[in-house]
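Weekly puzzle thread! Below is a chain. First person to post its structure in token form gets bragging rights.
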Amino acid sequence: MPKSNHPLEKLIEIIFYKGVEFEVVERPDVIWAGSVDYASNNTGESDIGATLKRFQSLVEVTPIKKK
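Winning reply:
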């Protein structure tokens, strides 16, 4: 059973992998944008400032009134 009942998403399949549950959902016309961020080792923190700067360099600047 899905954790949330989102009105736009349709549950397709639930996958269990190494003790982690993943929900595969179908959702119409949604653009997911992001940037992968991870630490260089398993105990440290990632450089979120550098990740944000890298992500911002990939997107076109649009005036707020047009968004």
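Puzzle host: Confirmed. Bonus trivia for everyone else. Residues 10-59 form one domain.
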